[in-house]
């Protein structure tokens, strides 16, 4: 179609065979429009055109990346992180992963061997003008301090005594670190945590604000701790936010504790055609395939990919007598876990 013909179609406006859609249309909305036209007698969908016929401005590079990513056409986790190199990765964590998880006989010895192996795994990305850079996946999984090169890595944690953010926070911190914990093999074949990853660091920070020590002492001479929320549901919600977040959004995951609820806010909408209803029904999806697989290797992620349905929903209902909340916008998914009623 020539430019003049296109402008004529736009000038004639929408009809039963022509539909205008803005440049921020969601994939499922576009799919519905196409199916409707196909069921009729065919037609045209013009993207980037307002309802009044104006031609929208050109999408920025970030908007184009977000559109392709939301439709599953590429995975942002594979992009290189500018300014990063192999030196930003934790060699001890990587060595454990290669030997104990992927089955390499020994860890690489030279820098060249390391780079070649990590390029093959997608943790590094070739650059034409210098040494390989870390991919987003490699950096957030194994980076010593991912936020140095990727400012929206990590997460923000806040706690408030009331039911809103009106007053000064009890605690407010931006946490940094690799998703994967540093593990060591035990004599009996198990694995011990030598140094926690980002999830463990967050849970340690949260503990004083979401739990209380009981008055009684157990057989191990420790005071029993009671939690305001089901710990497994909290862990699952945080993991989902970190693993499935949209890396085209330059904001952190947020975890916020209030007097009556805990909110976990994941940047970006759900991936591709996924909806809250499908997620609750148990449909599976992965926005960041490499991150998901590595976290599954370590047992962080439910092997069946149904943590929302099998953990967050039933555990929250059993613990508090109320349902977990799920709020989806074009910018984020908010998961709300109600607090256990005080006795």
Keywords summarizing the entry:
343 residues; six-stranded mixed β-sheet; alpha+beta; globular; 11 helices; two-stranded parallel ribbon
Description:
- The protein is α+β, with helices and mostly antiparallel strands and 343 residues long.
- Helix content is 35%, strand content 21%.
- The strands form five sheets. The protein has a six-stranded mixed β-sheet with strand order 6-5-11-12-14-13. Strands 1-2 form a two-stranded parallel ribbon. A two-stranded antiparallel sheet has the order 3-4.
- β3 and β4 form a beta hairpin.
- α6 (136-142) packs parallel to α10 and α8 (231-244) packs antiparallel against α11 (307-320).
- The longest helix is centred in the N-terminal third of the chain and has 14 residues, at 27-40.
- The protein is globular.
- The mean pLDDT is 85.
Radius of gyration: 24 Å
| N/C terminus separation | 70 Å
Order of helices and strands: HEHEHHHEEHEEEEHEEHEEHHHEE
DSSP helical segment count: 11
User: How confident overall, as mean pLDDT?
Assistant: 85
Read across the widest sheet, the strand sequence of neighbours is: 6-5-11-12-14-13
Helix/sheet category = alpha+beta
Shape label: globular
Q: Describe the main β-sheet briefly.
A: 6 strands, mixed
Strand content: 15-25%
Low-confidence runs of at least 5 consecutive residues: none
Helix content: 25-40%
SS elements, strand count = 14
Write the layout of secondary structure elements.
Blueprint: H1 3-12, E1 18-21, H2 27-40, E2 44-47, H3 61-70, H4 91-101, H5 111-121, E3 124-127, E4 130-134, H6 136-142, E5 155-159, E6 171-175, E7 182-185, E8 191-195, H7 198-210, E9 211-217, E10 223-227, H8 231-244, E11 253-257, E12 261-267, H9 276-281, H10 289-297, H11 307-320, E13 325-328, E14 332-338
Parallel strand pairs: 1-2, 5-11
Antiparallel strand pairs: 3-4, 5-6, 7-8, 9-10, 11-12, 12-14, 13-14
């Amino acid at each position: 179609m020539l430019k003049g013909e296109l402008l004529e179609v736009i000038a004639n406006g929408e009809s039963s065979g022509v539909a205008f859609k803005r440049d921020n249309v969601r994939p499922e909305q576009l799919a519905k429009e196409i199916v409707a036209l196909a069921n009729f007698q065919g037609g045209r969908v013009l993207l980037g055109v307002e309802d009044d016929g104006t031609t929208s401005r050109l999408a920025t590079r970030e908007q184009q990346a977000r559109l392709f990513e939301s439709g599953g056409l590429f995975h942002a986790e594979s992009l290189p992180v500018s300014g990063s190199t192999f030196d930003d990765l934790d060699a001890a964590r990587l060595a454990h992963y290669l030997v104990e998880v992927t089955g390499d006989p020994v860890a690489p010895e030279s820098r060249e061997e390391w780079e070649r192996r990590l390029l093959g795994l997608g943790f590094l990305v070739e650059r034409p003008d210098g040494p390989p850079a870390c991919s987003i996946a490699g950096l957030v999984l194994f980076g010593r301090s991912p936020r140095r090169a990727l400012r929206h890595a990590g997460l923000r944690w806040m706690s408030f005594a009331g039911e809103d953010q009106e007053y000064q926070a009890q605690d407010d911190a931006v946490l940094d670190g690799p998703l994967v914990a540093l593990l060591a093999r035990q004599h009996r074949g198990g694995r011990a945590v030598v140094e926690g990853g980002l999830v463990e660091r967050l849970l340690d920070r949260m503990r004083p604000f979401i739990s209380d020590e009981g008055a009684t002492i157990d057989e191990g001479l420790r005071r029993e701790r009671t939690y305001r929320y089901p710990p497994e549901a909290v862990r699952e919600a945080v993991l989902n936010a970190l693993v499935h977040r949209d890396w085209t959004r330059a904001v952190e995951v947020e975890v916020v504790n209030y007097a009556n609820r805990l909110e976990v806010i994941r940047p970006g909408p759900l991936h591709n055609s996924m909806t809250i209803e499908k997620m609750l029904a148990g449909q599976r999806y992965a926005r960041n395939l490499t991150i998901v697989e590595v976290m599954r290797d370590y047992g962080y992620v439910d092997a069946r990919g149904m943590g929302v349905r099998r953990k967050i929903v039933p555990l929250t209902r059993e613990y508090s007598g109320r349902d977990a909340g799920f709020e989806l916008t074009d910018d984020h998914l908010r998961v709300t876990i109600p607090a256990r009623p005080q006795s």
